[in-house]
Amino acid sequence: MSAGATGRRWLAVGRSDSPDTRTAAATATRSAMTGPEPKLVIVFSAITHDPAAVLDGVRQVAAGVPVVGCTTHGEIGPGGPTDGTVMVAALGGPGITVTTAVAEAVAGRQREAGAEVARCAEPLADQPHRVLMLLTDGFVRDQESILRGVYSVLGAGVPLFGGASADGWRMTGSHLFAGDRVLSDAVVAVAIASEAPLAVGVRHGYRKVGDAMIVTSSGGGRIQTLDDRPALDAYLDRLGAPREAYTDVEAFRDFALLHPLGVQRRSGVEARNLSTEIDLEGRTLGGGSAIDHGALTWPMIGDETSILEATDGACEAAISGLGGPEPVGLLTFSCAAIRATLGDDGIRREGERLEKWAGGVPFAGFYTYGEIARTRGIDGFHNQTLAVLAVA
Amino acid sequence: MALPVAESLHVQQLLELLAVVTSLPDEESAVQGAAERAAQALEAEVGAVLFGDRVGAAIGFPAGTVPVADLRAVADGGRDWLDVPGLDRCRAFAAGWGGTHPGHLIIARWDEAPFAAEERGLIRGMARLLELTLTTLRTLRAEQAMRERSELQAVENARLAESLREQQRLLIHVSDIQRAISRRDPLQQILETITVAAADLFGDDVVGLWVRDRDDPDRARLLSAVGLPTAHLPAMPLDATGAVGEAMRQGDVVLVAGYGHASPAIRDLTGDRLCASMAAPVHENGAVVGGLLVASYEPLRSYTLHDQQKLGAFAQNVSLALTDAHTLDKVNRAARDTLTGLAGRGPFLEQLTEHLAAGRPAALLFIDLDRFKPINDTFGHAAGDHLLVTTAARIRAELRDADLAGRLGGDEFAVMLRGVTKLDEAIGVAQRMVRRIGRPVDLTGHTGHTVTVDASIGIALSSDARDATELMHHADVTMYDAKRRGRGGYQVFSRQLLDATDARLFKPFEA
Which one is the CATH code of B5-158: 1.10.340.30, 3.40.50.2300, 3.40.980.10, 3.30.450.40? Predict the structure, then answer.
């Protein structure tokens, strides 16, 4: 379908909207397997497909090549975002080396699981450029601890990139692909080493509303109070939320998707998604990893303009991070909440923006339940962002 | 006081660290948590805790490759960088603590710019908090062991609970200070939040927050206190401030027990009842700018190592809060006159301007000492200073709390009588002031003499002036008129007086 190559490294993508899962998976894989020495196949499949059949279809075509992937809340690639399709990216060439690892039964031992999978990058330590791509189960909490475990093994020298699997907003469970297995409650890691640069960029497009609210009580990964008021009410009041958001889970989710909670960090405000851990009874807020007592927070809003600026920012950061060489392809993981904010027309324009930055080389990705991007510092799990990996 | 909320970021980060490490159950996890949280707060790649040559925690290096000797060199101050595999050279900074279990918190960041002064302050604050937490955890562990051996389980349980409550109280108080800053509370209120918090944390009779005088670094002023009078207190020499002066000089927590040889100033302030005190330095951008004192009238009060660590940690938090808010800068801008403790010229005019701009009335007294210069010249500056300090005290003695007295320079003073609209009221104050200032002043300690000076006072009402500048001008020319008419008296402003003065000043040259 689309391929970028230097002769020694290549990335290609394929997509199929065939309603027959095996056909869709095989067709997409065939379109992506265009270069010599394929090293990795990455599958992004709509939740509507049977995951086992997806793997069957992929492996029919890509026998002997490591396969990883996950289910999505929409597939991203050339021609615009789609639902109900199978999207495949393949990577290869003599200049690329790949190792993979899987950790299972992750919930409750996230840090340990992160440390386990990170070891797959150790054999590639002598390669000039490395990145560890992680695909996690979007239904596992405290994903930051997975990254802490990874960091404890790899240290600061290896950038991290990845995303959390999604289930098309069904909220019943998502799947990961690893070799010939369909997994949940797992982490799949791919260490990619290359003779040429690999670079990661990440941005969110939301801005603060009003004065800061201080976390005056927190515990168990949840914010109990903001400015001494029940956190959920303080958050909704500040934004003038509709009445039903105070009492109805669906209404709160719809509202929170568009209004992340900003948390002050040294270099800016980090956006946290409040829509997945809703507690109308206790009136508390949950935003992924813990937000501690004393933190300065703001409700945030975003619109198409600000989000598309962030699209530009993430792409620009990844491509310029290559330090000169042109990319052979991009992996683009965008948050499911961004999709909610942008709407169908908006995500089409986001796709056009990605296409412009790709400049004719292939790109592939999905709408996630969380993005992973770490180049500086120790944190790397994000909400409401676009994370981009540029491969030179 | 308008503060961008983001300025309290460093306090937030310290609070977050405190919240994390105090929630961890044992020393190992607290050390690991502190290293991670400190690195996270500074967006650094490396966070490490070193106890001598033993690595308590280290993140940022590939597993099994922690460069202990390099970390040790940073802790010892021998270098300010670390080589981290896969990155270029990283800037490094270490903050240490002493006591029975000394250690260092080391942070390294992949950045060309070195750590800013406030970031170094943050790392020091985090190191202090870690020290405090580790001491608490060790105490808890020791008490747990004792409890298992002892029959005094109930007593130990109570002590255990108290230690935990103390940690929690520290957290709550620091949070209160942060919120006071974030809410943009008035400066004095923020300072009072700090001293009231310290009073609650230590339960002592006296707490004082002192700040080094900008113009005279050998002096300090008491800005806010519990159990001490702060109103109109002049700056005092560091030597005369006891533990707080020593803490500022040493840059560390200082204990003083026994006050038999305390300075007269301290004895005056405390009614000669002080038994024990402890003070910690307060920093701004790494430099000692003040001190936080806690003191007790209890003869049996002694401060434990834990108390010292707690005060050190709290003072470090206060330092960050004040630095974040540029609070001390504002204090300096609102500086009082070093010698007399009255408002300086600038702050006096600012407050007068603000008061009038808000549409509120006032009467202004412009006061000038008669024959001050010959006394100063004859008996020397020390005698002159004593005379000015005495005059300032006598002026204050005639004022209500709401009024404002300022030293405009030399032997010129001014008083704003807030809300006064009637001349009779202002005249009454001026008359009493003239009488009181005119009493003999004992300079025997300086000269062996007693001297008498008079004051000339000009009175003007804000209803006759468009703004503060004009009101000052009115009171000034009226004071000169009073002086012209004879020493030791007052005059009331009138339009005719102004015209006459202007006529004298602007009389055209005659051809």
Answer: 3.30.450.40
